[in-house]
Amino acid sequence: MNEWKVIIPPAAISEIRKIYGYIAHTLLVPGTALNQVQRIFKAAKSLANMPKKFALYEKEPWRGRGLRKRPVDNYVILYLTNDNMKEVVIFHVFYGGRDIENILRNEAERGGAEGLF
Known about the structure:
Blueprint (H helix, E strand, L loop, with lengths): L4 E3 L2 H17 L3 H17 L21 E5 L2 E8 L4 E9 L4 H11 L7
Helix pairs in contact: 1-2
């Protein structure tokens, strides 16, 4: 099976670091924080094998643009696939209980996500 390249931009790495910081320093469980971050990276890297396995984001306009979400425990990875380049680009990694639609809307208003929205 041809693997796709998984790209985790600095902004997504920063979000993962924040997850670690919250669990390790606020909740005071650094071992759990490390395990969670490792599971997130493993899940992101697994997208190289079957990037379209996970559901498209359920609301427009993001669904029509191919935004997908990959759950990881209580967290979510939002990503896009580029068929021509065989790439998976991770755009966000955060707690799944957050208002994802509001985050995406605010990003679109600011012109974020490299022209995605």
